[in-house]
Amino acid sequence: LDGLAKIARLVPLPLVAISGINESNAHSVIAVGVDGIAVSSAICTARDPCVASTALLTCVQNARYAQRIYT
User: Which of 15, 47, 51, 68 is 20 to 30 A from 61 in CA distance terms?
Assistant: First the structure.
């Protein structure tokens, strides 16, 4: 995540993180400063895609909320 954080600081364009993102790491990925995440495997391979997508959305919303509070 350190390399991703460096890229997020240096690149003036919107940055989307892709690959290996799931409910357990989505908050950390957003927290380093990316603008979005791509999570196809985390949803498509889930037992219940609706539950998985809702959980991921909650992770992203919580990370965005934390960014507003702590920055």
Answer: 47
Given this model, what pLDDT does residue 71 score? Answer: 60
Helix H or strand E segment including 55: helix 49-70
- Residue holding tokens 């809702």? 54
Reported confidence tier of residue 67, pLDDT bands at 50, 70, 90? confident
* CA-wise closest residue to 27 among 3, 61, 50: 61
Give the predicted TM-score (pTM) of the model.
Answer: 0.81
List all residues 6 or more positions away from 9 whose beta carbon is below 8 Å from its beta carbon.
33
Q: In sequence order, what are the residues at sequence separation of 6 or more whose Cβ sits closer than 8 angstroms to the Cβ of residue 36? A: 14, 15, 16, 17
Assigned token pair, 3: 């390399």
pLDDT at position 50 is 97
